[in-house]
Amino acid sequence: MATGPSDFKPGTMPVESQTSTFGGFLNLTVYGGSMIAVILLYPILVFCTALSWFPSLVITGVFGIILGVALKLKGGWFASVIGLCVFLAIMSVIIAAIAT
Which of 48, 55, 80, 100 is the most exposed place for a label (fewest CB within 10 A)? Predict the structure, then answer.
């Protein structure tokens, strides 16, 4: 390695853009991982346990709200969880109507 003279002084490089990029990556990871967990919980409860669709939906919604509070997620998270529960309820009613 070359160890010649250098103008570099530790701690003087501006890191604001790297800080915001890393913060965005962390937010994406937290929100994305949490949403995957909530989305996968519903079919796991419906198909792998003896629960029907409505108790599974309630458990999934409560889990999503608790997860949002525990991770201090913003209001968009709670709106997404409620919207997902409404969507799942409509789809479950449609599938139940078709199956009978």
Answer: 100
Amino acid at 49: T
Task: Please give the residue range of the domain that contains residue 75.
Answer: 41-100
How much is the pTM? 0.78
Domain count, the chain: 1
The 10 Å Cβ neighbour count of residue 77 is 21
Q: Any idea what the Cα angle at residue 36 is, between residues 78 and 85, rounded to 5°?
A: 45
What are 19-71's pLDDT values in tens digits? 888 999 999 999 999 999 999 999 999 999 989 989 999 999 999 999 999 99
